[in-house]
């Protein structure tokens, strides 16, 4: 397994264009849009179903197809800082993605088992690419997510479905009731184009 390469904030690797800092900027714009969309939905929370179980919303508009699961509306609308994870994959166009979509649906059915999970947002963009945003209370969520067998299977399938991915770690200070934007802390990069996975990380700013 290759060592994880440490990238400087503005460093470019020309033979791996998905790591270009400008790509981070584009992802961040989409993440800000997703946060704004969630705030709009939560502002009308009185019209949402009861929170006895996760609330599932499927919306479609000019911006794409939005699959949104609200796991804990009360916490989301408090003034607590939220940890955030953003996923952007450069999907392969020569493969049927049905099996990984099915795994996502299976994982969503298990969301009640993740005590730290607050919300999940899958955005299928008009470009036929995907962006994901996960909001959680704290770092313990990542361990539960990583150890979940369904998620582990999805990770196993990832190289077959994506050329590369960017995994962003961030923070939304003050939660969803204010106007603070997604604060990007670091980005992890994975390149699956060769037999051995290439990995890198870029620290953006301190939390």
Short descriptors:
single chain, alpha+beta, Alpha-Beta Plaits, nine-stranded mixed sheet, 5 helices, 29% helix, globular
Strand and helix layout:
Blueprint: E1 5-7, H1 21-43, E2 55-61, E3 64-70, H2 73-76, E4 82-91, H3 98-108, E5 117-124, E6 130-136, H4 140-147, H5 149-161, E7 162-172, E8 183-191, E9 198-203
Parallel strand pairs: 1-9
Antiparallel strand pairs: 2-3, 3-5, 4-6, 4-7, 5-6, 7-8, 8-9
Helix pairs in contact: 3-5
Structural description of this entry:
This protein has 207 residues and is an alpha+beta fold. The chain is 29% helix and 33% strand. It has 5 helices and 9 strands; from the N terminus they run E-H-E-E-H-E-H-E-E-H-H-E-E-E. Strand 2 (55-61) and strand 3 (64-70) form a beta hairpin. It is globular and about 50 Å long. The chain starts with a strand and ends with a strand.
């Amino acid at each position: 397994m290759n060592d994880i390469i440490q990238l400087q904030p503005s460093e470019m690797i020309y033979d791996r264009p998905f790591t270009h800092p400008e790509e981070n900027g584009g992802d961040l714009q989409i993440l800000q849009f997703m946060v704004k969309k969630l705030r709009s939905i939560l502002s009308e929370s009185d019209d949402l179903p009861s929170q006895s179980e996760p609330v599932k919303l499927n919306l479609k508009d000019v911006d794409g197809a939005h699959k949104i699961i609200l796991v804990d509306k009360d916490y989301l609308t408090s003034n607590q800082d939220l940890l955030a994870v953003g996923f952007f994959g450069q999907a392969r166009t020569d493969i049927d993605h049905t099996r990984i979509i099915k795994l996502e649906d299976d994982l969503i059915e298990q969301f009640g088992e993740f005590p730290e999970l607050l919300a999940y947002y899958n955005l299928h963009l008009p470009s036929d690419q995907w962006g994901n945003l996960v909001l959680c209370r704290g770092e313990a969520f990542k361990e539960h997510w990583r150890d979940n067998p369904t998620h582990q299977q999805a990770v196993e399938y990832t190289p077959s479905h994506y050329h590369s991915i960017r995994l962003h770690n961030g923070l939304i200070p003050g939660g969803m009731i204010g106007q603070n934007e997604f604060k990007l802390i670091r980005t992890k990069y994975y390149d699956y184009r060769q037999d051995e996975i290439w990995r890198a990380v870029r620290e953006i700013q301190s939390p």
